[in-house]
## 1
Amino acid sequence: MNEIGGTPLFFLEFGDIVVYFTPFTLTLFILALIFTVFVLVSRPERQIDIAFGGDAFYDKVISLSELRFRRFMSIACGLACMGAMVTGDVFDFTLFVSLVGICNVGIVAAVKSRHVQNAAYQYGLVALAGTVPLFSAAAMVAATTGTLSMLELAKNAVEIPLAARALLVLGVMGEGMAPFYAAKAEMFRAPGAPYVIMCSLSSLLIFLRVAEVILLL
Amino acid sequence: MIAQLLFAVFFGLLLLGIHRKVIARIQRRPGPPVWQEILHMLKFSFKTTWVPKTASAILFVGVVLVAIGIWTAALFVVLSGGSLLILFAIYMLHKIVEHGFGLSSGSPYGKFGGVRSVISAASEIPLFVSVAAIAIFTHSLLISDIIAYQALNGPLLFTIPLAAVAMYVVLLSKMPFGPFSIVESKELVSGYKTEHFGLWRAGLEVCNGLKTYVLLLTFILVFIGGLPIWLILIVMVLILVTLSFVCALSPMLSPYDSVTVQTLIAGIMVAYVALLGVMS
């Protein structure tokens, strides 16, 4: 196979679906795993604002149920991300990427603030629209080559349409827009650093993996 | 490997010290001694260390280990002639590390540093452009193959000069006191690293030394080719001095201007690679 991410280290076969680890995908997988463990075991930070003109300060308190939900969505996001990093199947990759998008909507939407809810709604629409080119790309690859296996596609036996690659990138861009919406709603002002970081990390990782997939196809 | 790692850390910190010294001399200040960054790292290693009460403790500490881990991996990739794509991934993941440093403390200064790190994501695109341009010419992303290609065909610096400029901009965006150093600008105290002190700051200094060494080494290997180690070190210092001149003579941009300029550079570089792709 085309060794874009280095020489493959390990193949794990599930029937005709193959999970494979190259130095590149392994690096991304390990980072997704490390940050998922951080989300699992760390407590969110506390944010304190000074009240000007005196010695008082405000302590922002977030309900436990909200934090629990955001933690659940972040862990799900981390698991989806790990799947997207090592899968050797184009359709599975699109599925995992759309799952990352759904989880990111959940992480953003869980914050009980009108501005954040608005941002989550807008991001939800973008992520929803992003699934159309994402799955269209997988469908086009299957229709033109008869396979969705990246290992088979890397042999370049059949030319993959440029449109399929472009749609795949477009779909990932749609799903990976979460950090911009988190920034737009100033989610960083609400406690929950590990969860916001998972938003950014998952988006970055799927961009990195799609770069490898595009070069591989 | 351990010896190479230690050498990379100390030489990287020495480079950062030279950077500060050159900037100071250009600005007619005496400046700190060139080994100041090494002294900083050693000093922080033995200072009192604790975790702020408001911090997300595990993330606060864990992100320091991740920072050292990813740049150690990057050094290993470069020395073993591995894939440039892994290096690109590590460089981009450094943003998440900066973000993690900033958000985990609960401090507004760190938080703004982390947010600025995320909004300046356009600074990564020139690196991707460099990688794409190199792939077009060498048909490989393995650093060992790129060095072999240059041994036969001459340095890529002369074949694809604009890709080298793109990589130079990437180096510039990671240098302290530069026009794009908005993540640690003085109005944010020390930006994303404000609340990390003691042993955690020493870890961050180690990461900065490694990062500087790895990025300069990559630039030399990818655009000039394989050289004897003594010559690589001299070229590293020369490139660093040019970066210091740029940093000393240009003001730090506002966050909005920094992102705009980086986006414009990224746009030009994408057009350049598209043109290279069409011509090849």
## 2
Amino acid sequence: MNDEIKNIKKIIINSSFELDCGKTIKNFPLAYETYGTLNKSKNNAVFAFHALTGDQFVTNVNPITKREGWWTTAVGPGKAIDTNKYFVICSNVLGGCMGSFGPREINPETNKVYGTTFPVITIRDMVRAQKYLLDHLGIKKLLAVTGGSMGGMQVLQFTSLYPDKTHSAIPIACSASHSAQNIALNELGRQAIMTDPNWKKENSTPDKGLAIARMAAHITYLSKQGLQEKFGRKLQDKGSLKFGFDADFQIESYLRHQGATFVDRFDANSYLYITRAMDYFDLEKQFNGNLSLAFKNTKSKFCVISFSSDWLYPTIENKEIVIALNACGANVGFVEINSDKGHDSFLLDVPEFLKTISEFLNSTYNEINNNEKRI
Amino acid sequence: MKKEFEVISQIIQSNKRVLDIGCGDGTLMEYLKIKQQNDVRGLEPQKDLVQKCISKGLSVIEGDAEKELVQFPKKSFDYVVLSQTLQAFLNPEGVLDQLLRIGKQTIVSIPNFGYWKVRLQLLIKGTMPITKSLPNEWYNTPNLHMCTIQDFVNFCKKKNIKIDKSMCLTNEKISEITNRNMSYKNIFSQLGIFLIQ
């Protein structure tokens, strides 16, 4: 695994970078991956921002975890975000654990991993760091920025910080400020990690805490109806109830499996830092309570997408973004996709959703190419 | 493109900001955008139609005009278009107030319930009228508040709404409505198109 980690593509950000928390960092790595080819006019680049537990390996097999990339359903040759046509970029967020500067890195001053001495980062910090990657790749203007969940928050932050850096933006299943319910759920996960006796212990990891955090979070990514249809009250062994506390029900063993496999690929402290960044995200507050000011100067065309059964980032929160964009006269379309797969819908094979992104991107791409020809 | 849309796009001309309410599959929007270089937005309650519009590159928001219009700022569009939908709202008066607030000018078209074939069916057959432009039965029609051309003009007067243009479609032919021909047009036209503010 270590060899593979060494092969991860990275840029080193040399300039001193002031974080929102007030601390300054310098000479830190940002890991990334690209798919497809950047065309001559450099106008086919799509920046995909990953969600809480994602990484830069959007599609194909992730070389580190050996599992499929997190957005294989949407990104790849011939897929909605077609890598035969577009150049897809994704970077591991600041605070992540797939090669970017995060709590798992070694602090050169102490020669120990940062752990909880790592500075608290924000969505804005993540996005500002990723802007360096764009400059490094020599891309003046993206075709699109997109992402779901925390990826969507980065989309909003990006368009707000850089109003003329992308032709279009597709925020999916997200929110412009994290709700009390979402902060509460994140806190539940963090407490599970922090109360694990192995947390902060040298040479050990709070695997149990992290697994429980993942189990709880995983429930929030699904919907009641989806769970009922997939698992119902089905038993693990077809026989009968065992009258004990082993995983009698299929849903229990499914969740246990989700928790157990997660700890192999994710760092517990990264989980703390990234969930914190999500909780701190409040674009409205960045603009003194007026969200539409966040998009005042935007030149991008937006396509906001939500899912009918998503109760974590419900349609109503996505619509707040649409309302703010409308209030400042921005170019915005919005559709709620019918799906019973909950928040996770954006990662799954939901044909109407994939068709919408594919066609929106395609029409935007044609539009800018026609305009360039005309000029 | 249907005659009604030709009339509407002629009123709008080019390089304007337009909001099309109940934009359907975006036929009018596409024409206004591509042929007349207008900056167009749409609002449509039906998901599949919204998706169709988005795939054409049109910026359309899924939503219900009775709830969504409040979010648009005052006079933020040169034209707001409402084609044959006014009669389907629970509160057409409220919607119209919003249209007039958002648009510098508003284009409203209404299927004319005073059309002679409609009158005749009710008079002779004694049943709720079914025509080309009103194809549904009374029990499944989306139209809750039907009105005639005369009704709409009276309504505008009562509400102090200024009518800049009133036109009508009679068998696909467009003509102007005047005070003098009003009762005639109210019998022989299928559709009224009004530019108001």
## 3
Amino acid sequence: MAIVIDKSQRWRVVAAHVFLICLCALVIFPLLMVVSISLRPGNFASGSLIPTTISLEHWRFALGLPVTNADGRVILPDLPVLRWLWNSVKVATLSATTAVLLSTTAAYAFARMKFAGKKASLVGLMLMQMFPTILALIAIHSIFSRLGHTFPAFGIDSPWALVLAYSGGIALHIWTIKGFYETIPSEIEEAATVDGATPWQAFWRVLLPMALPIIMVIFLLAFIGAVNEYPVASILLRSQDQLTMAAGMKQFLYQQKYLWGDFAAAAILSGLPIAVVFILVQRWMISGLTAGANKG
Amino acid sequence: MPMPPVLKRLLPPILMVLLGLAGLYVVTVVYATGETLLAGVMLVTLVCFVWIYTSKKTYAYRYLFPGIGAALIFVVFPMLYTIRIGFTNYSSTNLLTFKRATQYLLEETYRADGATYNSELHADGSRWRIRLEDADSGAAFVTEPLALGAEGTHLTLKAQPATGPLPGDEMPLKDLIDRQPFLKGITVVMPDGGQVRMTGLREFAPSRPQYTRNPDGSLTNNQDHSVIRPNHKTGFYETADGDQVTPGFQVDIGWKNYVQIFTDTSLREPLWRIFIWTIVFSTLTVVFCTTLGMVLAVLLSWENLRFRGMYRLLLFLPYAVPGFISILVFKGLFNNNFGEINLVLNGLFGIKPTWFSDPFLAKTMILIVNTWLGFPYMMVVCMGLIKAIPQDLYEASAVAGAGPITNFFRITMPLILKPLTPLLISSFAFNFNNFVLINLLTGGLPDFLNTSTPAGTTDILVSYTYRMAFQDSGQKFGLGAAISTVVFLMVAVISLIQIRSTRIAEDTKR
């Protein structure tokens, strides 16, 4: 650390604090605003950041409970937020499980085995990751609508179509897990092999239990990725009841039907858990990745 | 319970054979439905599966097969298929395959001359009878009982003169409407040999197929005896005068979509402007996010500053909130009339910018939102890179009497810019295709005037193809896929530059 301390340092510290506080305020403003809006009565009401009257109508709407209007009418929420949330959780759980199954096994081969085309396939996986799925949306739509003619369970409007479509995006996960496997000394598995374990048993009984932390991280990352995914979900899911949160949320903010308050409640309901999980995993993942990088 | 050793040894091969046979059966069934491509993909997958899990030589591939297979089928195959679609006329007017379009035309019927019957459905146990009454003479007929089935089944029933009113209840109108698709497949043969079909909810009349297929593949119109022939260049059945009969079918049209992209002025004009905006948008986003992120990283790495952990957590928040939520939050906050941002601006300066209807303001808004979304990532990355800079450099510069500004421009920035370059390029590539932001925030609006297909001033290339394929301009899948292919090539070039710069960054590290 620099030992020479400048005279103007105190002023610089104050200036830095002022700048950072202003910026934090700008960053936090939209998030706090959403909380405030979700508690205000009415969908068009404006007011200060701290609402003067607190109303839970938007939260009731988001949870699918009947809402009593200002003029005494009882209205039932027409956007099935909880249903969307459940769809999101369902699709995300299934596709995260698939991602873990597919990537742990493939990464094992990449980390421990010799086979033809190993380097090429690793590079190929990396290249694949660079091409965004969005460019293939038309083909994905066409493939799944044709698949649906033969197997309706995997067609448009089916959660399984989404799980299948997401199952290909595992290149980064394979790389991450491979890096982690390489930090585990292969002597441990070799010892198991000497004791008569098949490669599969060495993988399943010895390596995998040791890789549990990275598997958890990959699971959560794939889970968050699937919950947040919007483009593919928006073309593969059409009917109101099948939508995921990401595909359905924009319906709150149509020009003709502007449900600002209800949107805010639903946004917190679905966004808060994901944000918390993400902050936790992010830290975990950075330590996992740097641990993987130390060796190579 | 432990298995006997013989069983244990024989079980895998037996299971394999059973799986293989089951797979073959499914493939055959799929092939029989006419989905040749799907059946082909399934067959290749099945063959690879059986080979890899039976051969000793392919042991490593047993672990790779599921993951790599999924990546090939659901990532690589859609990309190739996109390129393929770019060479076809696949669109809302040419949605069906040739086979299905022909089938559709052959199922068309027209109403022929002859008596019309009023119809009623009456229950007969769990089955139903149709009662037909001649609209003119009042003569009544009754069919044999029928069981209700699924849409698309074809049934022929015989009718007998009625001996009296039918005992069972009549089918309610609601059920009748639900069952109409099935009922339309029924042909009733009258005692005089005439055939009638359902032409209205409560009406049966003689109806004949509109077209008959000729041996040479052309169709003869039974009503006016004209002949229509399939034209595999345009993707339509055409009359002798060249009039097109809908529905069309998918055909290869070669480079036509590409020629259209590069020569059709009504398409080229907006496309060019969208391309420019895509470049401007991704460049400015990267510049803004990196500048802000780097400055913050330098500040947060400054050890004399307190509360750094708290600042870091707060500034990281935008990255943790799901994108679809924060983008929609901004959409609401920027709303012209009741958005909170305009309320604040109105209160402070008395202005109410029209964020969504003015092209320039809309673009400004997009950049503000994207900077908000993107700077935390750059901040975290830069903080990591700054940590790696040796401290003695700063000590030396302090001895030389350099201030923080000099330090930043002479030491920090030059040293982190090189390892940062690959990330900047990948961030550029990401924003080049940042569909979610554009689609959720503005949807590409406001639109250009005077364009043949709707195109927005804030559209980037991918959101433009999305609109072309799935929104307002009639499902132009073929054209959209052709544009996607062009974007593919651009992304490939960007990736190439990125790989090159990564290599340079790694070389200098060594």
## 4
Amino acid sequence: MSIDLSVWEIVIGLEVHTELATRTKLFCSAPNEFGGEPNTNIDPLTLGLPGSLPVLNEQAVELAIRVGLALNCTIDRSVFSRKNYFYPDQPTNYQISQFDLPINGEGWLELPSGKVIGVERAHLEEDTGKSTHVGGGGRIHDATYSLVDYNRAGVPLLEIVGRPDLRSGDEARAYVSELRAILVAVGASDGKMEEGSLRVDCNVSVRKHGDAELGTRCEIKNINSLRSLGRAVDYEAERQIDMILAGERIEQQTRHWNEDEGRTLKLRSKEQADDYRYFPEPDLVDLAPSQEWIDRVRAALPILPAARRHRLCERSGADTAQAALIVERGLDDLCLAALDFGADPSRTITHAEHNLSDPKALELDPEMFAKLTNMDADGTLSSTQTKTVLAELVQLGGDPGAIADTHGFKAMDSGELDSVVDQLIAENPEQWQRFCEGDPKISGFFVGKVMKATQGQADGKVVAGLLADRVPNAAKE
Amino acid sequence: MSSAIDIAASVQSGERSAIEVLEEHLGAIAERESEVHAFNLVTTDQAIAAATAVDELVAKGGPLGPLAGVPVAIKDNLCTRGVATTCSSKILEGWVPPYDATVVTRLAAAGAIMVGKTNMDEFAMGSSTENSAFGPTRNPHDLSRVPGGSSGGSAAAVAAGFAPISLGSDTGGSIRQPAALCGVVGVKPTYGTVSRLGLVAFGSSLDQVGPFANTVAEAALVCEVIGGHDPGDSTSLPQAFPAVSEHLSDGVQGMRIGLITEMMGEGIAPDVAKRIRAAAEWLAAAGAEVEEVSVPAVTYGLSAYYLVAPAEASSNLSRYDGVRYGLRVDAPTTGEMMELTRTAGFGDEVKRRIMLGTYALSAGYYDAFYGTALKVRTLIRRDFDAAYERFDALLSPTSPTTAFSFGDKTADPMSMYLNDVCTIATNLAGHPAMSVPYGLGDDGMPVGAQVLAPALGEVAMFRVAAALEGSLV
């Protein structure tokens, strides 16, 4: 079955862990690098050796402040706590995290659609190592032996906890996509979901429209792409609705997204909360960034994706979907620079949306791009010719006028085109008869012939107009 | 045996070689170590190499540090590069640190020669050194009695003349109490003045490294060498250690000194109380204004301490799981391996405190136990602050009794915990305190006087201690 969204409301809240792009780990000087031979990016603290002590990485704090400001969060005095649990990939068997006093409080993020999603908090914590369980079912409890790589242990993470304001898989995807764009924009993360730089835990519940209470939620882990996120949400919502319709109770669970099977599977029940015995980390002092530091970080923040979209719409008349795509491709600066050189706004947006997907487009000379949009708009070049010139401009650079000349592109004299059309009508009376009778397929025949005769210099739309003008009035009625 | 200061002077002047000094001390160790058992390990080869290096430096004309050629014993919970560090626990079996603790580095840079790693109560949990997995240390003054603890080995090493100075750690009295019981000077500096980097953690918010010595002046010098800011310890204060040595002969004329009422009554042996009253009288005679002062919250110190310290310990000691280093007891699954390793590797007292701390931090109990303990900590600090508005330093016994006999208090953990009743509040407040010998009890065993001061009040504290020491000469 599919979900009847007129009855059911899906409620989604996301917890996004992002690895911060620092040079070293959160509490020591071991390098923060992806990959590498197992257990090479380690030092005494990474291994939890006796006598080792944590020292907070200032760069990680600065990146957390940048993200906090970009998400309109408050930047607060915060405290590190220990989250105690035994697991071999956690070298000290406690994780240093922030519990009741996170660095970033209450904020929000605006989706390209204009919808505002609340952010509850964002806190700093250290990552764990990676376990590989060999033998048995590949799980820790039945493995023959386990291998642990501590390269990732101690890498700084920022956990961004979103409010349950999302209402569909598509919206969840848009949220993560927007968050990723912000993280990349402020230099906090490379945003690579496939390398684990960005990890999404997804809380899903369902309720009927109008219900005041939220339904019981399940947390889905192991979501490794935006596509999986949408699929996992849809699957999980449907599973929960089916259960409710069957009169069953939803149990609060942690569930595992299985990409191959396209479904979520129960990992463990969350009915009984784990007791992590949090207490303030005595090896660290309170973190209280000065107002002066926060102001300095704020002043240095780059322009963020939402502001880029607004700016582009205002200057060019692009719609929100176009602006979202262009900003995502990083082409908005090029478009604005081209407009500064007097580019045709509508053609600028159309080309950025459809004809500039090649990454080399980012290096396009805005002045030359502007010149081309005007040659396109004033009919100097046909749309086909414009595309050809643009493609060459992207690959090799140069002047669009010169490129057009080397191809022999020039605007057809309208009288010249008239005579070509008249001659073709005279040479193909049968086909012309069919055209006049309204056979839609035959239009292409004439346009093709004109293109061939003019070596592609004619504009297809203009030719279609000339043909339509020649149909006798009687045939139109 | 000569003092650390005399040794350094004679080595610097070329009058004696570091090797000669070392051999003298290794001789003393050879003579009595089998009965005292101050050491888990005597590092003869490393010591000879280090002393030789000092002598070569002397031959080259320096530069020489203030502890050139001075033998030092190091508590076995301080990491020493290439030398086993056990915390007197089976669980660290086979582990050799790849680094030196900051205090060890600073001692070596000052020219000191490490002669060995000293015995202790396992993970510094205890007051008699009977909780060592490698057998107890004996009090050099009377081998039938305990040396105190947890730094019993370091106190005994100095008392037996194995080294003129040693390092211990003090979480609730673990330097001061054994110093008192062994008749030597022991200092617990202000929290944050001496780096904890490389000190194996017990109660991180309470732990502080400090020296043992035969005299106040030697202890002062060691504090100045090991103290001062360390960027590797986030709780390290940004300044240098207070310059105490230059004030040792300032006297106590005009100083205001308070005798803590709560530490002079019930539970304090009459012979000990008598010595402390004598100390107070002497200080008054030397020109100090001495009065009794009440610091009411200290009576809750023991209860608060036995929540805070075990809570932190339960977390600090969770890393000993057999996965990465130390003892591993193999088992079919990782979980069972961790459980069997910890069951076999930890002694009873350590297990008792891990359970206590785990319980104190558990959901539903946190507020009642750990939360309340933190409030008591604030109260203790507040009551001390009030006292220090009127007094420059405070005075009390270090330990309620002189050294007790083996097995006296092992059956009842609570009676053992009560041994720290005078020392614990200082750690909860983060303040400095030191023990200085002040005569003998009725049993002929040493009595220690405790001098307490506000945070960074080491100058006042050392002035009082030096004056008390001087009164006995």
